[in-house]
Amino acid sequence: MNIHHVMRTVLWVTPMGLLSLIAVTMVRRRLVRVFPIFFTYTVYVLTRDVVLWFVPTRYPNLYSWIYWVGEAVSILLQLVVIYEVLWYLTGPYESVRMLASKVFKVVIVIGTLAACLLFAWVATGPGTSLIEMIYLLERSARVAQVFVLITIIVFLSRLGLTWHHYATGILLGSGIAGLQLVPAELIGNLHLISNETFGWLKPAIYNVAVIGWAAYFVAGHSRRTDLTSLPETDLGRWDRSLREYLRAR
């Protein structure tokens, strides 16, 4: 067994093991009811990877379909996870939550339009092969994901959230996972890396993201997660101002 095969196996098995631990930890610490979408995402990706593990190598087309369709669903779930964290963190501020929900929907629309424009612009180029179209679809989806994530992080920067909170870990891991846009861009548009290099970089980045999630949910100590109040921040003042504005209307 050569070293490359061993390393690829490690890159594949590591997230499966860590996602299993994260799911079990969330059940034991009763975090499923706090972050149900993130739990769903964890179980879904784990299930998909287990299925792919047992797909015979003589069926490459079946493997590709399961992987790429699963990747699309995975990216969609990651977007919903970001919204879940936003909804959770704005819980103490009803008015801000309503505003944040509207902002999120607008950002989703803008990000989706940007991704569609990117796809339409590049896909009309001459000589676009099927594999390049697949890479382009992923890049477009990642653009929307990163766009939404950056906007939400900027929005939440006033929350006073500490680095020791589960929600921070989810956002941190999602941010790292969004960096899969980099190898997708390097191969799809710039053509600076080969398919083999892409096959190494993409899972390596995702491994780092899963390790980040595991560091919060598995390695971290049990923390109180019932968010009833947050430190006095600008959001508190925003919430009061929004309430007064709504009452005056």
Portion of residues within helices: over 70%
Beta-strand residue percentage: under 5%
Kindly provide the radius of gyration, computed on alpha-carbon positions and rounded to a whole number of angstroms. 20 Å
Number of helices: 9
How many domain regions? 1
Principal-axis shape:
globular
Average pLDDT, to the nearest integer? 76
β-strand number:
0
What is the subunit organization of this protein?
A: single chain
First-residue to last-residue Cα separation: 72 Å
Low-confidence stretches: 222-232
Largest sheet: none
Assign the structural class, choosing from mainly alpha, mainly beta, alpha/beta, alpha+beta, or little secondary structure.
mainly alpha
Question: SSE order in H/E notation?
Answer: HHHHHHHHH
